[in-house]
Amino acid sequence: MAAVAVQQVSDLLKDGLHISPKTVASRPQEKNAAVPQQPDIGYDPDETKWKARTARRLLENPSLPNTPLPEGFPKKLVSPLMWEGKDWTEEKQWVYEMTPEHLKEIDEAVKHFRSLGKPFGHVKASTFPLPTLGPVLTELARELHTGRGFFVLRTIPVDSYSREENGIIYAGISSYVGNLRAVQDTPAVIAHITDLTKREPSKTLGAPAYTTDKQVFHTDLGDIIGLFALEVAVEGGTSRISSTWRAYNELAETRPDLIKTLAEPWVHDGFGRSPAYIVRPLMFHHDSKISIQYARRMFTGFLALPRSADIPPITDAQAEALDALHFLGEKYHLALNFQKGDIQYINNLGIFHTRDAFVDGPEQKRHLLRMWLRNEELGWATPPELQELWQQLYHSVSPDDHTFPLEAAVRKQTIGGVLKKD
């Protein structure tokens, strides 16, 4: 693969990136070169910096593309989950339109659950009966785990229901897709994703979910992400997804050293909490499957939660790997036409996602409800490094104590500034 490295450097230099071997050779003699420093990388990916870093690293070590893949990691993934955006030509390939009969079943299921007088945490298939829609959802859940990894359910008439009823509908439908709901902010199992910059001081916002900013490609926590659109933006806010398996195949072929980097331990910022940081890989090979779990802000910071200065910095290789993931996500992404009343489900272990910046209006404000789900029957085996976290997500709080907040609030783990410590 040395020839690949030479060609990559040549291509990058053609893009106007002037990095001379002399400059590279002088780097070890720079003052304080032995002291690890955080690379020049921010939350917003910079393609020019990424290409420059790639060119420099390949000049420093042209043998990087000859790096063996980590033991057991496949040279190529073959699966319906290995797709590119251009493979999908019309949205009926991933959108399931509910019938009037389905909507009637949902309405009756809401009334049935309310009549039971049970806590919200007990919304499940047996308490939210969907005689004809339920089997459809069960099959769509299989699509998440063994097929393309995503689908959109269209569409709930959200304006016909109260906020509380929409929460029950969302939980009831989702219980057929994933029977376990993760705690996102103890003991809440539903989170509101909406712009809070006009309500919350900027010094407390440490995650882009609560702004109108463009996000970068990332994963959430858990096996399945569900997003329910109570309202969409006036402009922008397009949801974009991309197959991490497609990104894996390209890196395995051209830059296996970056696969090795992703599979090695990374320092995840605790942002002032205890412990100050945790260490785990971003990429896992377990039970014959490749999965990725990461959020860029854990390594670069975001707004009120900058990267902590007193923890080990990420390496130059890790910085390149972060950018490579993002730009491969962009290269092969699919844009979803997410409409009001839609529920979008994606396999969070095999697909990463992002959203465009957006503009709200005085009366029309983008507002999503989010759940993190797991299907105990179909779910992928959890890598050992994630098992403790998954236990906390799905089993630390009894369903009796689960809550469905009716209003948006900043998740504790993303509060910055003076409030960032627990």
Automatic annotation (TrEMBL):
Q: Does the keyword Oxidoreductase apply?
A: yes
**Keyword terms:** Oxidoreductase
UniProt domain TauD/TfdA-like: residue ranges: 119-372
Q: Which GO terms describe its molecular function?
A: oxidoreductase activity
Q: Which organism is it from?
A: Sphagnurus paluster
Could you tell me the superkingdom of the organism this chain comes from? Eukaryota
Q: Where is this region: Disordered?
A: 20-46
Please give one Pfam family short name: TauD
The record, for PANTHER family, names: FAMILY OXIDOREDUCTASE, PUTATIVE (AFU_ORTHOLOGUE AFUA_4G13850)-RELATED, GAMMA-BUTYROBETAINE HYDROXYLASE-RELATED
Task: Indicate what this protein is called per its UniProt record.
Answer: TauD/TfdA-like domain-containing protein
